[in-house]
Each structure stands twice: as structure tokens, then as C-alpha cells.
Design goal:
194 residues, mainly alpha, two-stranded antiparallel ribbon, 79% helix
């Protein structure tokens, strides 16, 4: 009912059935599993004074990666865009949508920036130890924000192809790679300690 009324031409289904789409989803889920293993192994990996913060940090990373992995194929930002178009047409402000898009991007960047700053402040004791995971997470959230706004100029940039490789693959996989690199380093540290 909701989709029929508000979502226009949006259909719930696989958003990117290509090899790279599924490869990216696999990278999200594999990195989420590794992050979850860190959460489970926190007592063996971290000093006692940092265990709780590290557990929270890696649980947040795990949940974000799982959500982004499902979103990669369910394409929920397209649903949000379709609902937004419906209300823009219905309420008569569709002609001014660029103003709302720019305002939305600025609001999302400010909110993400504020949330990242608060999260970093709260996690400052473990920030240095997880800096690559945090950089990867910020990179992913920025990429997803840009992608979700579906701004034509940004779509042109992230869909640019160099030597057969699309920039959106590079940008998204780079963020996942940084998180995975940080997670694997922690797990390797655990094995060397035992």
C-alpha cells in the first residue's frame, strides 16, 4: 500500500545485480563478520580500561556495515528519492527541488559531521588505535550520502570510468577496505599475543 501510493516507480528488488554489486555486498558482509569477531574477542584484544569502548565501537561498525550491505542491494535511497518526488509534486515545490537537495546535503553533512565529532570525542581513548577504521567509516558515510542525494553532477563524478573501473566502485570499496584492514590487524594482534 505504502509503496503503491508514495513510491511511484520504485520497486523493491535487487538494486545492483552486477558482479561488482554482489562483490561489494560480499565485502560489506565479510568485513561485518570480522568486525563482529573483534566485538566477541574484546576481552582478549584490548586493555581492561578500553574494553567497553572498543566493544561499542566495533558493534557500531558491524551494524553500519550490515545496514550498508543490505542497502546496497535493496537500494533504499531510491525509495527515499521516490517518496520525496511524490511529496514535491503533490505539494507543488518540485520546480525548486535543487534548493531542497542542496539544503538536504548540507544538513546531512552537518549531522554526519556532528555525529562523527561526538562519536570521536566519546571514543577519543580508542581513536588512535582505530583511526583507519574511523577514516574508512567516514569515507563510506560520505560516499553513501553523496550517492543518496542523486545529484546529477555528483552522479557524473562517481560514475566516471578509468581503465574500465568505475569511480563509485573504488570509492565504496576503499572505505570498506580501510575498515577491514583495521579489523584484520586487531585479529592478527590477538593471534600474536596468544
Amino acid at each position: 500500500m505504502f509503496l503503491e501510493k508514495y513510491a511511484g516507480d520504485f520497486e523493491l528488488g535487487i538494486g545492483d545485480p552486477s558482479f561488482m554489486g554482489w562483490f561489494t555486498v560480499a565485502c560489506y558482509f565479510i568485513t561485518a563478520v570480522i568486525s563482529f569477531k573483534i566485538w566477541l574477542s574484546s576481552e582478549q584484544l584490548f586493555p581492561k580500561e578500553f574494553i567497553n569502548k572498543q566493544k561499542r565501537f566495533w558493534l557500531v561498525i558491524t551494524l553500519v556495515l550490515l545496514f550498508l550491505g543490505f542497502n546496497k542491494q535493496l537500494d533504499l535511497q531510491s525509495l527515499l528519492t521516490s517518496v520525496g518526488k511524490y511529496f514535491a509534486h503533490r505539494d507543488g515545490w518540485y520546480e525548486h527541488r535543487r534548493i531542497f537537495q542542496v539544503s538536504g546535503i548540507i544538513a546531512i553533512i552537518v549531522l554526519l559531521g556532528g555525529a562523527t565529532a561526538m562519536f570521536s570525542y566519546y571514543m577519543r581513548a580508542v581513536f588512535k588505535a582505530n583511526r583507519w577504521a574511523i577514516v574508512g567509516l567516514c569515507f563510506l558515510l560520505l560516499f553513501v550520502t553523496i550517492r543518496a542525494t542523486s545529484f546529477h553532477h555528483m552522479d557524473v563524478v562517481i560514475n566516471t570510468v578509468f581503465w574500465g573501473v568505475r569511480m563509485n566502485w573504488v570509492l565504496e570499496l576503499f572505505g570498506i577496505f580501510l575498515i577491514a584492514l583495521s579489523a584484520v590487524a586487531w585479529l592478527r594482534n590477538k593471534k600474536s599475543v596468544q
